Amino acid sequence: MTTTRQEGENTGPDFSQKLKEIKGQFELVIQYFEQQDYPLSSETAIKIVGEMSLALEELAKDYPRSLYAYKFSQFNELEINLGKFHKEKNIDSNMALFTDTLVTLNTYINRLEKEIKKNYPQKSLWVTLVSKHKKIIALGVATILVLTVPFLFWRKHEKNKHGLRGEYFSKKNFAEIKQKRVDHTIDFQWGMSSPLPKFKKDGFSVRWTGYLRVPKEGSYEFYTHSDDGVALWIGEKNIISNWTSHGTTVDNFALPLKAGYHPIRLEYFDEKRRAVIRLLWKKEGDPRPTVISSKYLVPSKELLRPDIPLIQE
């Protein structure tokens, strides 16, 4: 006897909790990785691979055709690569391999989420409600749009007050600028993809400029994760300079800073293949480095608060 699934009917197992656990474990991997606790990050990543494999097998029991394209041998290959990284004494030599594995894991998690949403939709009542109350809902939607659209424009304007001004060049020597935009944080792991639509995947460069708000006087340690070249200035001081072609590399520098706004400039180029650029800092008392939040970044001088001093160094 064959059972037909109806649209909106929840006839399969609840995978939402399983997916939530997998995502939570992946966040731990990234945290351990940023803390350079590589053995623990690889152990957790191996666990994720196993959990994803089991989840896909459960999905494939009911939907073998839609999941036919999945090759479970790829998970075995990932486990082998993770095992190599975990056992390798000279960890730095396999950093690029592990970074690629994290990018691949993230891609698989996104695909798994799509398959779960497609194959096991949650039971809902909204379709029935819409069909019975079309006129009332239409009036409600129109009212919400009238009230919401101005708010969205204001919110977009407010968002552009925070971040750094990014200039994207199609060549790695800052030639042929293609786009300007405000990036709220510098936390990009483009992998083998292009950073912008209809933009080159390799051989490009980016320059970010603006102001960094230092909340209180003290020692600040700055970190960059880059693949490839990177250079960082705070005021007039070039504190990080690794303008070479290299795999994912962590550079850092500590310096004392006064409270107030400091000019900041970050330059980056990608040679080929993977593209990674992240900007982090560690304030006094912080347990570990974190990506610099947009609330500490301002893209242009006219947006600086008058009650906070501008430090020219």
Task: Describe this structure as you would to a colleague.
Residues 1-12 and 151-158 have low confidence and may be disordered. 23% of the residues are buried. The radius of gyration is 24 Å and the shape is globular. The chain is built from 6 helices and 12 strands. It has helices at 16-34, 38-62, 73-87, 95-119, 126-132, 134-159, and strands spanning 164-169, 177-183, 187-191, 205-214, 218-227, 230-234, 237-242, 249-257, 260-269, 275-282, 290-291, 297-298. 37% of the residues lie in helices and 26% in strands. A hairpin with a 7-residue loop joins strand 10 and strand 11. It folds into 3 domains: 16-119; 126-159; 164-303, Toxin - Anthrax Protective Antigen,domain 1 (Toxin - Anthrax Protective Antigen, domain 1, Alpha-Beta Complex). Strands 1, 2, 4, 6, 7, 9 and 12 form a 7-stranded antiparallel sheet that branches. Strands 3, 5, 8, 10 and 11 form a 5-stranded antiparallel sheet that branches. By secondary structure, the protein is of the alpha+beta class.
